[in-house]
């Protein structure tokens, strides 16, 4: 079977810019970008601190007096600002999704408990509470990834049930 490729060659990847090619919303992409910039800044902390120390107490003369530190900082950030780092930040964002979901659920439970307390304290009718709850559910629904809410996506296990 000469037509088969040898096992030593790595598989060629598709022309996808990331290992997680799901389309994200603009706010989700901004969160990924924030993680990415934080990761790059973390790798260049020494250069950033050197530039900040040089620029301390200067205004107009920063561009002249701190030119070497500025170039060192920029070159470090350019060196570490790669597509692999962006992919790593994107994967970190996906890994933190469950934690964010748990935080949202906790906030919703606390808000519901406070709403129940206020309704009982002030003697509000039940329909006021339910209308507010519907408004909150429509505003803060499930996290959307790839255009579908998380509860509507099929599970990876192939059981045919939906994830929650």
UniProtKB/TrEMBL annotation:
Regions of compositional bias (Basic and acidic residues) in chain numbering: 1-14, 133-154
Pfam family, one: Cmc1
Primary localisation category: mitochondrion
GO CC, alphabetical: mitochondrial inner membrane
Stretches the record annotates as Disordered: 1-27, 133-164
Domain of life the protein comes from: Eukaryota
Cell location: Mitochondrion inner membrane
Keywords: Chaperone, Disulfide bond, Membrane, Mitochondrion, Mitochondrion inner membrane
Biological role stated in the UniProt entry: Required for mitochondrial cytochrome c oxidase (COX) assembly and respiration.
Family membership: Belongs to the CMC family.
Name of the protein in its database record: COX assembly mitochondrial protein
Source species taxonomy: Eukaryota, Fungi, Dikarya, Ascomycota, Pezizomycotina
């Amino acid at each position: 079977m000469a037509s088969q490729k040898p096992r030593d060659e790595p598989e060629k990847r598709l022309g996808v810019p990331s290992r997680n090619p799901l389309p994200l919303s603009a706010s989700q992409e901004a969160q990924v970008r924030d993680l990415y910039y934080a990761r790059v800044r973390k790798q260049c902390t020494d250069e950033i601190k050197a530039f900040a120390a040089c620029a301390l107490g200067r205004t107009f003369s920063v561009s002249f007096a701190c030119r070497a530190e500025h170039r060192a900082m920029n070159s470090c950030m350019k060196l570490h600002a790669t597509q692999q780092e962006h992919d790593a930040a994107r994967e970190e964002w996906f890994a933190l999704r469950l934690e964010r979901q748990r935080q949202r659920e906790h906030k919703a439970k606390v808000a519901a408990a406070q709403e129940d307390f206020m309704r009982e304290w002030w003697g509000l009718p039940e329909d006021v509470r339910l209308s507010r709850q519907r408004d909150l559910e429509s505003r803060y629904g499930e996290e959307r990834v790839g255009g579908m809410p998380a509860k509507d996506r099929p599970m990876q296990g192939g059981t045919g049930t939906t994830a929650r």
